[in-house]
Structures are given as C-alpha cells and as structure tokens.
Amino acid sequence: MFKFIVFRLFWVVVTVWAVSTITFFMVRAAPGDPFMNEVRNLKEEVQAARKREYNLDLPLIQQYGLWLKGMVQGDFGPSMKSRDKTVAQIIGQAFPVSISLGVIAMFFAVMIGMTTGVISALRQNTFWDYGLMGFAVLGISIPNFILATILIIVGVFLLGWFPLSGWETPYHVLLPAFALSLPFAARISRLSRVGMLEILSEDFVRTAYAKGLKEKHVVIKHALKGAILPVVSYLGPAFALILTGSLVIEKIFDIPGLGKIFVLAAINRDYYVVLGTVVVFSSLLCFFNFLVDLSYAFLDPRVKLEEAA
Amino acid sequence: MNIPIQTDDVPMRKRPWGEVPFAFLVNLSWFMSFIVGIILIPIHDLPITAWIAWGLWFAINLSVTLFLQTKRMVPLEAPVSKKEIQGTSLFKDAINRLKQNQLATLSAGVLILMMICCFGQSIIAKAIHPDIDDPKSIVALENSFLSIHFDHTRLNKEESFSPPSTRHWFGTDFAGRDIFARTLYGGTISFLVALVATIVSLIIGVSWGAISGYTGGKTDHYMMRFVDVLYGLPFMFLIILIMTLVNGVHTTASQNRDIVTQYEDFLAEGKTEEADKVLQENELTTNLGTVKAAIWLDNNISPVFVMFIAIGLVSWLTMARITRGQVLSLKQREFITAAKTIGAGNMRIIFLHIVPNLLGPVIIYTTLTIPTVMLTESFLSFLGLGISEPQCSWGSLASAGWKEINVIKPYWWLVAYPTLAMFLTLFSLNFIGDGLRDALDPKMKR
To answer: Least CB-CB distance to A145: which of B228, B399, B446?
Structure first.
C-alpha cells in the first residue's frame, strides 16, 4: 500500500514536470511576445528593458532553468500583462471559483446520472427506461454552449429564477454548474445503467430476492455497488473534462475562473500565467486520478494495489 | 380433450414492424416529413401549395403504413427457402440483428441523407462558382435558383439578417449569406474533422493497444501506465496552446507574405540594396528566417488541418485501452499459436491476424468517437480558436450566431439550424454506435 502511494505520487510529479516543459516550449514557440500589442507605443529601448526585466533576453534554455528553479521554490513568477500582480495572486483569486464550479457540477452529474441510471436499469425496457436513455443521448449530443443558452432562456428570461451572469452569491453557481454537469450526467447515467444490469443478473442478487428481501434492500445493499464501480473509474476523466469544459461555461456566464484567465493569457502570450494555470490544472488532475485509483481498491477488493504498482 | 383442428385456417403470427418489407423506407419517410415540416413552419411567405404538398406526403406515408400493417400477419411455418440452406457468418448475424434495430437503421438513413446533402452542396457550389475557394474571387450576383440556395459565399448586404423565407429557407447572416448553403457547407467541414481526427485516433490507438497487449510484461505495463498518465491531462489546454501557436504562425505569415515576395523579387533581379531597404522599412532584418519559416508552414499546412490532427492526437486513449483488452484475450487463441508455429513474425501476427479480429469493438468505439470529436471542434470554434471565416463548420456557425444574437436582436435562425443539423448527426451517430454494439456483442443486450 505504502509502496503504491509513493510510486503514484512520484508519477504525479513526473507528469506535471513533463506537461509544464512541453507547455513552456510550446508557448515560447508561438510567434509574438507579451509586449507585441503595445509595440506601437513602446520605444525600442523600453521594450528591451521590459524584456530584461522578465529575463526574456536570456537564451531560452537558461530561462527554462530559471523558471523551473522558481517553480520548485513555489514561485510562479510575475504576470507580464497585469504588471502589479504575481501569477500566484492571479491564480489564488481564480482557483476557488473554478474548483467550486467544478465540484458542484460533479456533484450534480453524479447525483442526476446515478439516479436516472439506476431507475432505468430497474425498469428495463419500459417507458421510463427508453425516456431516460433518450434524454441521455440528447445530453451527449448537444454542445455545451447551446445547452447553456437554452438554460439561460428558460431559467433566466422565462422563469426568472436565476441571475444571468457573474459571481457574487452562492445562487450564481447553480445554473452554470447545472449546464456544465448535464453531458456528464448523461454519460454517468449510461454507465451506471449497464453496470447495474450486469449486477442484477448475478446469482447473489437472485439469492437475495429468493430470501424474500424487498427490492429496496436488494438494490441499496447489494446491487448498488455494481452501479458505482464503472462510475468511479469514469470520475477521473470526467473531472478533467469538467474542469476544461468550464472554459466555455465560464465564458458564457462571465465567471472569473481559471479557464477564462488561461484563454486570455494564451492569446496575449502572458507566458508565466499560462504555465502557472497548466501546472495547477495538471497537478490537480493527476492527484485526483490518484485518489480515484485508491478508492477503486476500497470498493472492489479484487483490485490489488501492490500489483498495480 | 377435444381440440378442434381447423384444417382450413393456417396458424398466423404477427411480424415485428422491422421485418415488414420497406419498413425502413417508411420510417425514414415519416421522419423526414416531420423534419421538413419543422423547417416549413417558420417560413412566413410560404405559398399554400407547399403545405398541400406536405399534406400529400403525410397522407402517402399514412396510407402506406396502414397498407403495410395489413401485411404484418404471416403464416407461422418457417419459410422454406428454394436455395440450399447456407450457414451464416458472425458478420452476417450481426447485420441481421442490426436490421432488426429500427432506431439504428433509421439513424443510418438520416446520417447518409445528411452526408449526401452536405457533399452535394459542395459539388453544386463548385459547379456554379468554379473558383469558390479563392477568397479574392468576386462573383457577380446571380439570381439563379442554384446560386441563391447553394452558393455559401454569395454576399448581399441588402438582405442581411432576413428571417427564413422562400428566398432564403434558413434565413441569412450579417453579410446576407444564405444560412441553408452555409449549414450544408459547414457540414462538409464537420464531417471532414470527424473523419481525419477519427482516423488519426484509430491508427494510434489500435497500434498502441495491439502492441502493448500483444507484447505483455514490462512493456505492456509501461505503455498502459503512459496512457493512464495521459488520461489525467488537461487536453483542451494543450489543444488551445497548439491552436494559438498555429493562429500566430498564420497571422505572421499573412502579414509579411507580400513583403517577403517583394524582397525576393528584388534579390532575383540582383538589386541587393533595394532588397535590404525593403527589409529595413518593415523591421524584418533580424527575424527574416523565422518569418520565412512561418510563411512556408502556412503555405504547406493549413491551420484547419492542424486542428484535425491535434484533436485526433488526444482522442486515442480509450481506443488503446479497448484494443489492449481484446488483444489480451485474442492472443491466447489457437490460430495465433498456429501462426507462431509456422514462423510468422510478431508484426505480421499483430497486423494480419489480431487487428482484423478487433474490427467489432473498434467499429463500435469509432462511431462513438466521431460525436466527441465534432463536439470538441465546436467547443474550439466557440472559443474563437477553431475554424475561422470564410470557412465554417456547424460549431463555428452556431457560436458565431450565438455571439450575434441578444434580446434586442432575436435572430434565432443563426443558431437554430446549424445546431439542428449537428444535433441530428450526433444523435444518429450515437444511436448507430449503440445499435452496432448490440448487434456485434449480443451478450450486452439483455
């Protein structure tokens, strides 16, 4: 167990390093620099001074070394666009927003998906099953921004239940989180339906019924685990997709999250902000996947962690 | 026990609707009539004859359906074939099962119709406007039927933002371009994205999974560990970085192309001084090499194509996992041992014996990859990093429309029609994928 945890944490570090290195060279390979849009206003000397200030005049490999050194010491570097802020400050402001959006969306997705999946498995080949699964395919087939638009039209303009955009009260998170969660709810619903159907045809479920247990008991105590397992293994990729999916949702609902900052920084060539967001995101995702693997071992005793390591 | 035997009455059974001849065509006709009806409703100046024609179509559907209903009862005996009884292969079995699945066949029909419309539009547009891909070509406004409905580059400022009418079935956008033509044109690009990205992901995923599963041991472990690691990466971020890189190269190239041509012309004529002067005027003396490289890249690789490849490069992971699982069970089978005993090499066994046997799961997963790829593309287009004007895809049309409309300008047709097309396609693909899974893997169907 201990060996497994150490091994996986080592992999997390290696992955984050690899991704940040790739990002570093990719973002530097893009033509232009952080000061390109100010070029008309800045004199040659001022521009050179700016570049010296951020070490941009050094050879690329030396810059990489400096950045990595700062990274290890926990220093993300300065922002080149918002000159009075460091990258750590910018990310520190946006991170809680993105995380709360992602976690709430995840919660919605699991709750909606599991409920509908279990219901349609229990009522297989009935009106409920076909209806819910039709909705699931619908959820998978509509682009997120269209779904969000429909939700805005219905929830904000027709019903007037929700505020349009922004990020002031906890109330603001509901509609974006719901819009973000629906495609994932659809997938989770399909996964848990299949898992549940498989379990329902197992011998021990039949035995449970034969003992005279009520359906409620059989489902909650015995069969539900089967519906949870495939969902748990999907949680890792789903969380990654939800966090990156929030790029669009953040844009539509005008939420000051990490995604918005990342897209803006990538377009403006704000190198250290791009790198900082990528490092934060990838370490978060790797760590989350690690947790998912760990929980998998607890849910299914047949999985042995030492073997996996 | 005196059961009267009715000699004159053959026992009958009711065939399922899927077994009735022409059931597929009738289903498709019904579905299309509803879609056409939905399209007809918003057209405000529709002549009454169109609705009469539609009603006629509806009546024909109804009567054919009622007529076929009477043919559903058939004698119970197994039909005696005049030909010899033939054994069926696994594949034929699967096709038969697929034919029974009406949702899947209907979806396949819708998808094929959609593809015919989209690719038909490109052929027609090419025929009436031969140099359509050249953005500089200006064509006089033709008022022919084909030009109005099928030329996606036809501009007419006077008709901007006109709602659906008999002249423009799906309305027009800000430049007066016909949304019907643009939706079909966007469809070709969307299908191309799906095709290229899926093929890329197929090639990488299947080879990776097959090699990993077949080799086994430490190699297998590390290859799968690598896939696990990639699963956790924020891929969308990497695609966005790639796209900013590509867009940057494209901007640099298009800004400096004329200058560099001028410079090279001077050099060719032997006027080095004037050539240097051109460079100095445009501040290009120091970075001429990079600019030239950017122009070369932009000339040879289109940004759209890079996006296709980038999306493909990140969507092969699940394919690799599925393939590996299949290979692990396949390699224990006798025919692989047989191939080994006659001395076939590893590569030969993998690509000639194992990969063909993977076809089922791979086809299933491919049909489910295409919708994801299309969604990724629309996602990128929405962020302004995907396909750029004058080209368009369903995703970019919908997102462009989304940015255009607000409460004061409720131009719903800008968003509704591309979304409807995309939605129909994705819906069909998902149903085909599900149908194929049920057909190829009957264990799953309960």
So the answer is: B399
Contact list in A for residue B420 (CB cut-off 8 A) is: none
Alpha helices in B270-345 (DSSP H): 272-281, 288-300, 303-314, 317-330, 334-341
CA A18-A21-A25 angle, 5° bins: 145
In a domain, B368, yes or no: no
Nearest-by-Cβ selection for B431 from A15, A137, A143: A137
- B178 plus B249 within the same structural domain: no
B152 belongs to a structural domain: yes
The verdict on B346 and B258 lying in the same domain is yes
- State which residues form the domain around A145: 92-269
Residue B38 falls within a domain, yes or no?
no
Residue range(s) defining the domain that contains residue B221: 199-360
Residues A107 and A102: their CA atoms lie apart, in Å, by 9
Mutate one of B101, B225, B229 to test the A interface: name it (highest A CB count within 10 A): B229
Determine, for residues A263 and B251 on separate chains, whether the beta-carbon distance falls below 8 Å: no
Per-residue model confidence as pLDDT tens digits over B255-311? 777 777 877 788 787 777 777 777 777 666 667 777 777 788 777 777 778 888 888
Do both B354 and B214 map to the same domain?
yes
Contacts A31 to B, Cβ<8 Å: 248-249, 251-252, 290, 294
Domain end: B360, B380, B411, which one? B360
CA distance B353 to chain A (A): 29
Distance from CA of A134 to the nearest CA of B (A): 10
| CB contact (8 A) between residue A143 and residue B378 | yes
| pLDDT on residue B34 | 92
Please report which confidence band the pLDDT of residue B446 belongs to, taking 50, 70 and 90 as the band edges. very low
Domains in chain A, number: 1
Q: What are the per-10-residue average pLDDT scores of chain A (309 residues)?
A: 80 84 82 62 69 74 83 78 78 85 90 89 82 83 82 78 72 84 88 83 85 84 78 78 80 82 82 85 81 73 52
Residue A238 lies in a domain: yes
The number of folded domains in chain B is 2
Q: Which of B231, B407, B426 sits opposite A289 (nearest CB)?
A: B231
| Cis peptide upstream of residue B390 (ω within 30 degrees of 0) | yes
* B75 bridge partner residues: B12
On chain A, the residues whose CB falls within 8 A of the CB of B371 are 140-141
Does residue A305 sit within a domain?
no
Which among B229, B244, B446 has the least Cβ separation from residue A197? B446
Provide ipTM, 2 decimals: 0.76
Judgement on whether residues B166 and B225 belong to the same structural domain of the protein: no
Q: Which CATH number fits the domain that encloses residue A180? A: 1.10.3720.10
Residues B139 and B274 in one domain: no
Residues in chain A within 8 Å Cβ distance of B225: 11
**Contact status, residue B240 vs residue B252, Cβ threshold 8 Å:** no
Q: Do B399 and B348 have their domain in common?
A: no
- What is the pTM for the complete model shown? 0.79
CB A27 within 8 A of CB B237: no
Measured between CB atoms, which of A27, A146, A263 is closest to B419?
A: A146
Q: Residues 80-139, chain A: which have Cβ within 8 Å of B?
A: 124, 137-138
Set of chain B residues whose Cβ sits within 8 Å of the Cβ of A149? 402, 415
Task: Say if A63 falls within a structural domain.
Answer: no
Tally Cβ neighbours within 10 Å of residue B89: 9
- How far, in Å, CA of B224 to CA of B436, rounded? 27
What is the least distance, in Å, from the CA of B241 to any CA of chain A? 7
Residue A189 is assigned to a structural domain of this protein: yes
